[in-house]
Amino acid sequence: MFYLTEQFFSIQGEGKYAGVPSYFLRTGGCNLSCPGFGAEYEVNGEVRLGCDTYFAVDGHFSSSWEKISSSDVLITQLKHEFENIGYLPHIVITGGEPLMYAKDEVFYAVVKSMLEHDVKITFETNGTIEIDFNRYPAYKACTFALSLKLANSGEPVQKRLHHQALKNVHSHAKEAFLKFTIDTALVETTALDEINEIIEILPDVEVYCMPVGESRDSIWKNDRAVFEFCMKHNFHYSDRLHIRVFDTTQGV
Ligand code: SF4
Q1: Which protein residues are within 6 Å of ligand 1, measured from CB?
Q2: N or C, which end of the chain is more exposed by having fewer CB within 10 Å?
Q3: What is the pTM of this model?
Q4: Domains of the chain
Q5: Which of 142, 228, 130, 146 is nearest to 180 (CA)?
Q6: Distance 63 CA to ligand 1 centre (A)
Q7: Per-residue confidence of the chain (252 residues) as pLDDT tens digits?
């Protein structure tokens, strides 16, 4: 059994596959909360801080999440969606942290079935959960967008950096790349050192950097600094197309 907070057809807005039509499955729950990303929301009068997808992270919203207890039901639903779309889009499984469900029977059955139907799957993950690729071999055929968190996430390094989990993905998965969300302040301070430390764990992995922001306004505050940072250090710049176009992070 796992939770989905939303599912929708859109275009991948970030990272290596930005611009590719993709069907998104957003799972509920995360092992981090990333208060440093500064998205403010209110729960019973209390102001909380989180990331741009706090609605898929904070358990307060779990009553609106959909409980998926049958893989067959979701697989049938996905096939129906793809018939309506008229072709097989990529599937992006994001969150929250989707790999919290890596060992879940229903979750794994959905992943396996989609791969058997020749669908390309990308996990958007914070890279802190170790996967048993021998016990769950279907994950070897997936792409891992390792969206690792840096100091600006507000999470302690011990919680946001899991060396063995990263090495495991690097040596077993078909494809993995690094994706960092950074802001002007981080560009001017520790971004380069932090990224270089991670590259030492994952040599030869492509690096994408994108601006922090849950809205057009906040992206505009950071995009130029990140753009110039990428030019200077030979990283790939990634925009956040869905936020640019729709000015929101939900349902797009
Ligand atoms: S790891 Fe990702 S989904 Fe989880 S709280 Fe941090 S930014 Fe949000």
Answers
A1: 30, 32-34, 51, 53, 57, 95-97, 126, 149
A2: N
A3: 0.95
A4: 2-246 (3.20.20.70)
A5: 146
A6: 19
A7: 999 999 999 999 999 999 999 999 999 999 999 999 888 999 999 999 999 899 999 999 999 999 999 999 999 999 999 999 999 999 999 999 999 999 999 999 999 999 999 999 999 999 999 999 999 999 999 999 999 999 999 999 999 999 999 999 999 999 999 999 999 999 999 999 999 999 999 999 999 999 988 789 989 999 999 999 999 999 999 999 999 998 876 777
